[in-house]
Request: fold
Amino acid sequence: MGNGIIIYIEHLRGIVSDISFEILGAARKIADDAKMTLYAVVAGKKVDALLPGLGKADKVITIEDDSLEMPTPRAIADILNAVGSAKGISLYMIGGTNISSGIGVILSVKQKIPLINLCKNIRYDDGAIIATNQLFGGKILSEVKIEDSKGIFCINPGSFKSEPGKSGTFPQTETFEFKSKESKLKFIKIIEPDLSDVDISKEEILVSVGRGIGSQDNISLAEDLVAVLGGAVSASRPVIDQGWLPLNRQVGKSGMIVKPKLYLALGISGAPEHVEGMKDSSLIVAINKDPAAPIFNFAHYGLCAEIEDIVPVLTDCIRNKKG
Amino acid sequence: MNILVLLKMVPDVVEELKIGDDFKSLDRDWLRFILSESDEHALEQAIILKEKYGGTVTAVAPDAPELDDALYSALAKGADRAFKIIGEWDIYRSPGLAKVFSRFIEINNIMGEQTLILSGSQAIDDLEGEIVYYLAEFLGLPGCCVVTSVQYNPDSNCITLLKEFSGGLRGEFELSLPAVIGIQAAENPPRYIPIAKIRNIMKTQKIEEIEIPVEGIPNGLTIEKLFEPEVTDRAEILEGTPEEVARKLVEIFSDKGII
Reply:
């Protein structure tokens, strides 16, 4: 195997993203199995505050520059490229998040090495690195293998536990001099979600609707259920994109991360981007007419049925129970 | 504005997906193709921008089953021209396709000071996805993905974008044209076009067919195998009449202290 692995530590507003710890843990295991050095790259306007807790890396490489407050994917790809060239490493792991999107592609073009996106698992086995990827909305998995330790793996958030990547020790650090090029993409500001009517991340019960709800009129089925059950109505991406519910109701990769006591998924297929936002709910019940819907692989209880047939009956049943 | 929107047909994942005999690709006999969902939003955003700021919209896609319907629909929605790139496309993924699109742009001399290239943020059917960033690199343009809003300022020839982060946070960015943008969701849902209007367009407008010769298409890593997710912890499926399963659910909710 090669000289080492480089992982990118993603952060937003002074906080290291959970995905970075997931990757630290997974990369630590690969580095130990393959007897490689694990480097973590932290780039930002102020990096010192981000370093505690990154002790699972053999060495943290820091790049500090005012222009890196909200770095473009190209700026980060340039940095990872420069660090990799300096260390003689062409093996990278990056978070498959919205913030980091594009870094892998640009780095792959610069280094002329393959990009392996949508990874849900990655392991070292007998001289090769093998990754499993979630394709077609999580319905099909693919397996790819690299044997020359040249590749960029983007890891879907939620694929690994973050705890094994966390450490109480301060890492060894090394500063890396790098001057970013002027970018045509300029960061203006961060926009907070509008939580004035509801903050779904704080609700204990969520009745969540997906594409399978069929029409905007059917949202009322979920609202009627919430009226007797309590909680709030949330949704997966297609419902928000149709304009059937406002943005602050969205659960998933781009929306809110929720952990209610009950997550009742109505007509939600369970694409990886959605599951990322609700997989830690205490009780997940899914109602979907497609028996092959991936949501049934995450739910505790499932019903294979039409939403219109079951939800009004359930609402009546709860109303009667509550008297 | 001169807007180019790059489209791609992908398997409809609502349908059953069967893995082919080679265990490396899907069995095409079973597939139903639809326009990639985020590409549909990119098309909508292109039409919205044209309506607001004027200009033209050109839709381009590699040949695929059901593509003609999607391109006629794009014309009916307001695209000015629609191109179909002829070739055997099922073996190409994003890096290769981006190379072909960038060659299409060169051959047709499309790039100008007011050119905006739009596509979907991420495709579901390949290992790389994010074609927008490949294209940005190949064309030497700025790029940005996971975008949900695009506003154009003609005076400065700049666009203002909203990019989704996580936890409901969004980032506002500014960018000068020409540029490549990956749309996650258009500011309005994709418009509905009555079938009669599409039929009418089929009589009056044409899909332009074009071949793009490209040497040495890069195409990433070979897939070793495809397989279906192994389920170790599948949901307990409740069965019975709606009344029976509703009663079972109420029992479960009650046991867990939810009601």
In short: Helices of chain A lie at 18-34, 73-87, 103-111, 219-229, 237-241, 272-278, 307-322. Chain A touches chain B through 95 residues (CB under 8 Å).
